[in-house]
Structures are given as structure tokens and as C-alpha cells.
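call fold(seq) -> C-alpha cells
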Amino acid sequence: MSSRNTQSTQALSSPRHPTRTIHLGGLSVGGDAPVRIQSMTNTDTRDPPATMDQIHRLADAGCEIVRLAVPDQTAAGALPAILADSPVPLVADIHFDYRLALAAVESGMHGLRINPGNIGSSPRINRVVDAARTNRVPIRIGVNSGSVEKSILQRFGGPTPQALVQSALHHVRLLEGRGFTEYKISLKSSSVAHTLAAYRLLAEQTDCPLHIGITEAGTLLRGTVKSSLGIGLLLAEGLGDTLRVSLTADPVDEVLVAWEILRGLGLRSRGPELISCPTCGRTEIDLFSLARQVEDLLRPVPEVFTVAVMGCAVNGPGEAKEADIGLAGGRGSGVIFKKGRVVRRLQTEDEIMPAFKAELAAFLDQLRGKQPNPHF
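ret:
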């Protein structure tokens, strides 16, 4: 994984909005840290094996922070076993019951996601804040369009951007009034326009780290589009220290989309970039299948390089000459190329993927300084 400055010469974003640094376990957030990628498990937290399995899948995909729902004491009781096997910092998602927040802190959770004003009376808030301070557990104030206080909704006529900001600042006052500053804020709406406006307003009033995203964005296709717009525009303006792409899909897909958003803006990269042509009337091979096979092949590879999958064996290598390695096919045949130079010619379409796998294995061995791996 690259740091926040690895691709600074190519970044499409404005300078980052200055924020203070907080720490989630051993992970720094805000300040000079990279934009961190977060997701949330959709397993039952009361089932540690299933939850741990998903956490590992998320971590393998590049997720750096994982949030878990903690709906009751049984779920809270499962946290120590889950923590013992987690490769990344974990955040407990708590609503209303301060006792769950205390249990999560006592279990060793690295962070809390709460709204301080929603967990009870002042003494209860004090107990949670004291526990978080003692155990160095940061808090994320999470406000979305469905959680704004009734009095604020009435004042602003609904969950407007101004209402979201005022709700967040209300919770901030509850923490800062108790001398607690290890927090970050999220303001989420399913509306891209409302989310953008809310974060812009908030950034004018705070230097705390910002967690960004579009909530309830939708299914894989629709949610990816909305999240890419909202998150991408915020990042391009320099806003955002952690992010989650919220999809009605496998949480691993959230992580993959997040990395592509960061890659597209030149902020961070992880794994190979895959470029492929959209196909046209000249395409004479099953390019859709080849592209999917290559994408699956590259999924576990962490190194950063460029791979091309092209549908024309004549023009493909030239059009993708900047790719480190790629394949192109036409009329049932194909070629494997590196940096625009053809290194293998195949006589049938069935030969393309086996040949590409062999050339990719050799390329990775060279990249990693290893001996050839015939079993890739």
C-alpha cells in the first residue's frame, strides 16, 4: 500500500483539509496519515467464527478498519474472541445503551461509534467518556439523515445539511465539555448533494478527522456510482480522513470500490490496475470472460502495476503500450504483450489464459526478485 503522498504528482485533489491526528489501536487517522479505508461486517457479531472469517476477508482486500454491530450483551460478550484474532483495528457500533459501550471498551475494542446524546443521561455519558479516555479509545460521532434530533429537525425543517452539522456539533459539545477530543465525525445522507454540503459546512468549523461516505447508497452498480461521486468529490476538495463505501453487497466489494476511488484520484494505490477496452463490432473473442478471469486472477495480488485486456490483437498492444503486461485477442487467436511489445503469439483462444498466467507469474517473480513460480 502506498502512503498518502506516493502519487502526489498525479493527484487530482486539492491539498488535504488540515485535521488533528487520532489513533485507533496502532493506526493513525487524520493529520498526515493516508486516507483510511473502512467497512462493516454484516455477520452476526454473536457468531465469532463467521465474523472473524469476514474480518480476515476484508483485511485481505485492503480494509484497514472494521466496524461491528453490537446490539446486545451477547454480542458484546463475543468481542474478546473476535479481537484476539483480528488483523485490523475494530470499532464497536453502539446505539442508545451506554452499557454496551462500556462493555465494548472493557473488551479491548479499538474504537466506538456512538452519538453521545443518544446513550442516556449526563452521568451515563460521563461513564462512557471516562472509560474511553482511560483506555485511549477514540469515538466516532456518527450522524446521518435518520438520526437527527427532533428539535433540530424542527428548527431546520428536515434533515438538511445545516441540520446534520448542528446535530454533530451538539454531540461534539458533549464530548469537549468533558475534556475529550479523541473523536472524528461522520455526516451521511443518501443524497450526494446534501452530503457534500454538510461536510463543506462542517470543515469550516472543526479540525477533527472526518469519516466520509454516502449512506444507503444502493446495490453494487448504483451504490458504486453514487459513492464514487460523493466520496470522490469530497476527496477532490481535500475532505476526508477515513471512508466507507456503503453497498448492499458483500462488504469486500466496498473495499475494492474504495481502493479504486483512491486510485482514480491519485491518492493511494493497492494491487494492479486493470484497463480493458469496452468492446466494439471488431471484437471477435469472448473479451468479457477474459477480463473477468484476469480480474479474478489479480484479486489477491498486492503489488501496484498495470494490466491490459484488449479485444483487438492488431491494435491492442499499441493502444495499451503503457501497460506492464497484457493480453489481446482476435479471430480466435491472441497475443501476450509487455510495455507494448508482443512476447507471445497464440494460435487459439483457449491458449490465451494459460499463456497469460505463465507470463504473469514470471513477471511477478521478477518484480518480487524471486525464482520462477511454475504453480501460479
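Residues 220-236 form the longest helix (17 residues).
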